[in-house]
TrEMBL record:
Residues 49-142 form the Succinylglutamate desuccinylase/Aspartoacylase catalytic domain. One of its GO terms (molecular function) is hydrolase activity, acting on ester bonds. It comes from the Bacteria. Pfam families: AstE_AspA_cat (PF24827). Transmembrane segments: none annotated. This is Succinylglutamate desuccinylase. Keywords: Hydrolase, Metal-binding, Zinc. Its cofactor is Zn(2+). Coiled coil: none annotated. Signal peptide: none annotated. The keyword Hydrolase applies.
Amino acid sequence: MVTTRLPVLRDPPVDHDDVGTWVASLGGPTWIVLSGDDARRCRVVTTLLHGNEPSGVMALHRWLATQPRPRTRLAVLVANVGAALTPPHFTHRSVPGERDLNRCFRPPHAGVSGVLAAAIAEDIQAWAPECVIDMHNTSGNGPSFAVATVRDPFLERLAGQFCDRLIVTDFRLGSLMELPLVVPALAPCPMLTLECGGALQPAAREVAGTVFRRLAEWSDLTALEPHPDLDVLVHPLRVELRPGASIAYAREPQPGVDVTLWARIDEHNRGLTLPDTFLGWLGEEGLACLQACDARGQDHLHELLCERQGRLYPRCPMRLFMATTNVEIARSDCLFYSVPL
């Protein structure tokens, strides 16, 4: 019997038709564990690290109603229940006033979110999983993609089962997928973040459902076939506001605002973004209110973006992803990531 710090429900029935009511019935962060034909092996999925990214837990709720029987034990974490249930439900990334849970997986594990992150890390060690997939929604609309901290053939094959793009990032932000770099016991465990698409996109729920079904059906993960056209992008740049800069999203420039991004900038999360693509308007400070740093903290803004007559454009062809239209996320996290081509 695996001993965990967080509560465990084993092979639970689905007693509530409404996913919000079901999440509330858990009472807090909970492992949902399905017995497998081979109880010696385990696979782990984490969901709802951000309370406003519910596609994973919605797909889980729907899938559990089918009473699945996986090939191996499957442990699924429903993590940030408090944030998810803060009214209005499924709209808060974190509990107001608390740290972002997915920035707390490196010590020191301060505050409520840090304590929870430490418990999750210990529990994942206890499960000794064959793999971990951490499911999220993108902060803007867009296609699904995966993120890994290392370029690895197995992670490429695993990512290719669910999406067409893998980002290999060297940013270290304290996310769950960084645990193998932090916890020596987890170093052999493949961990992948899967961004399923926008929280309101039905397709995102379908992607999440595919994760549960396939992890339950696969007998041998080492036998996965590679995705022949997987797009692998490495070393993204993180485009952020400089301290004190202001931002808005609109269809026209907003007076007194340093950066007004185009209201539907998240449309550029798909495909190639070319130098003639209009991204938004700049205020009196121009580009000085932005930075585009790599993982070492070096700013590549002027290699990536340029100003033309007060408007913001790419300087070169690029792949743009995680572009948000949420002002709070833009202020507290970043505007978007980009890989110049």
